[in-house]
Batch of 4 targets.
Target 1
Amino acid sequence: MEFVARTSRRIAGELAAVAAESGPGGEGLDGRQRFLGRIVDVGAELYAMSASCVYARALGGADGSPAELADAFCRQARLRVAEALARLGENTDAADRAVTGHVLDGRHTWLEEGVVDVSVDGPWIAEQRPGPATGPGLRRVIRPAGTPKTARPSDETTRRTR
């Protein structure tokens, strides 16, 4: 819980710093959505850590198993929090915004060539035809673990796809 409290203060400071540097005439926090997304990810992890610790304490348990599970979860969450916090300063946001501007300016329209225009009337999928399929069988068999590969296939379709 000390980690949660300490990290909560840190992300509050990060938000305040970004809000101050963005200022009223600057980009503002709304322009920093990816930054805010990483802050939200950290906040969600901190919430989950708090909830698991409180729940483990409420369950008690003579053998300590609830606390053991909460501790395991929190150790994993700390790693995720550390990675998200590191990405606050080390990220590709500025370059991504530049590329986004180029996309909006029409610089990358070549990528749209061959894409079906969804505003055009017409079917999006092939027409269905009643009756048996006329193409090759594409059925695949997933064998349970430990099943030898020499097991006989169940039907002709499976034999053709092996």
Target 2
Amino acid sequence: MMILPLLKSDFYRLVRSTYFWVVSVLSVLVSEGFTLIGILAGSDEPTPGAGRVWQTHAQMLSSSLLVGGLLLLFTSILTVRIASEDTERGLVKNLFAGRSRRAGYYIEKLMMIAGITAWILFLNVAVMEVMLAVLGYRYAQPEPWGRTILYVALMLLGMFAMGALVAAMTWLIRSKAFSMTAGVLVAIGIVNSVVSLAAAVLISATKMKWIGTLAQMTITSPLEQLGRQPDNLFVTLGAQSTTVLPDLSGTAPTWGWPLWVFSLVLFTAWIALSVAVTLLANRRRDVC
């Protein structure tokens, strides 16, 4: 199955659809809206007592775009729609003339999800930059562009990992409602909190310290850490102590890796797992 023609067709349909633009506008209004409300209310000053100043560019991006998992939420909404649309319309039955062509179809869909993920992120970054520039915000510690680009790239990789996971669930379970609900729970951090709490209980009851490491490998754990420690990308943080319960706020990567390496490895692993599940589980399944 030719990937490029399908990709062109899907993007053509996407940009002509109402829901794509509605979700895009909502992502900006909600994400930037919360930041603006906090600023106007005086409760979101980046540096208390220092006026309109963020310490670093990465701190601004994390505080404005990663808090609350809002961008993950809108990515999940668009992903479920894209992953289920062909099945709902019956179009997928005509596309699958043979089982050997299915891999190309799912790869094309994942490429499309990567595209809309980039769109949602870059749209919000651009609007946030303009809004804060107009409001007169500045940065106390100017940082190299390479560092900012790396931070945005990690955000993008994490959002795509989320999209790939939600798409895999949609194609595997074939329930739009279930996939949407699961995506929302993961995006807003409920799943990560439940896993961390369960790990704390198990460690306390069984003394199996390695469970704490597994709890830090959820898909939103690196994103939470990028949001909480945006200026520590290159700092090698020590492994979590095995003598205490897991930190439920998710503040320290395991294995003593720098935060950017920890995020890169975990996001890549989740993407690889999602792609493998998508291709293997749907290789011979009926389309209806």
Target 3
Amino acid sequence: MALLAAPGTASAAGASVCQREPRDAVAQMCADQNERMYGMFVTFVYPDVTYGGLAPTAGTVDFYNETQFFTDDLMTKSFAFGLNMRYIGTETDYQPYWLDYTNGYNFQKIGGYTTASDKLNHTFMAIPSCGNCTTWDIYYDFVKVGVTGNQPNPMSFHLMTGWDLTDIPGEVGLSTTSNRVRFLDGNNQFRQFNTVDTSVRAPDGYCEPGADPMYCWHWDTNVTSTADGRVVSWDTSKPIVRPAVASPRTAIAAPPAQPEDDTEIEALVARAQRLVDEQYAHR
């Protein structure tokens, strides 16, 4: 499967997760940089979903929009948060969560689930619990929902954000999501990544004539950036794609998404920055 690649990552930061072969149908952006990261802030609108013919008989299906923060250079320890969309045969449940890979796998639900997108920007944030701490406070929509276990280091050089689908990826369509992700720098300021420090992976599934529709899939992806090369968002949508009897393959367009309000996004970032400033005012 072909991997899409942006400009190479910073060499001192080590290899990127995006250089690894994905196990599932993924659409992910990785940030690997020399500058230390001490936390992260992400916002996105829950997408709408459509299903092809396999969904009613496929049982439970999970797909995740997740942002992961790695705390060792080998990327074996981390924590993450995001949205789990689960098809249960009769509906799709939208469940925010956070998880901790300090010792094994610890999955924590955040509140209850809904059965449709509310079309609102939801925010996820992780900031250090204290100066030079190796634990992070986890916030969802600016409410503290948990604290990670002790990680190997009080900072990171590696982050990954985006979608991971399992089970029936060829028969699922998702409207556009724009993951707007920022990192907390050594001056406790949220900043956008530089595009030269990012790479992406969104490999296509097998869509030759006669292929299994479950393994025929495709993502539409885009790294939106400013004129000076700062990452604004990681944009992804997913049409339903089916194997072609003859070239080209057939596709059902992803459901449309509502345009996001940049003014609202900037207000959310400012609110996150105020929370950080208040927490570290004594430092």
Target 4
Amino acid sequence: MTTSIPDQNCKLVAESLTDALANEWRDSKNPDNTAFAASSLTVYEGADFAKHSISRQRDALRRCPSQSEADGKRQWDNVHEVSIPALKGFDAVVAEEGHLGTDANGRSTDTYYVSLTGSKGQYVLHSDISRGPETQQQNRDDATNALSLMLSRLASRGIQ
């Protein structure tokens, strides 16, 4: 079980999900390949480990307004934290937005994303949506709806 997090040079590196008991990740896209989404659930040994994960993500976000993959091909700019007031019921939330300027093949692109991560007890939920530039509000709405739905499903199973 791994996650990607920016190192001290703001290059994304794979890192083990220490103290995690389970992790499930799902990617999807719409039929015309103009919108991409990902969601995940990580279960940690306890709430303190989940809080630590959220804290590390927030620290990296604040430190790296520009990020790239280790090979330098995929590059993000204008990476910043935002407030998403519609998200309720989480112990902690990190909301990130940014722009993908160069894709995995090193080609120029104009894709904007919203990435939301929330913790509830020992659970960390994540939702990520990306599309073209004129859809950032729709990205926020879709990511918020996805994360809220995931939390409601945990609650319906008696997880507080």
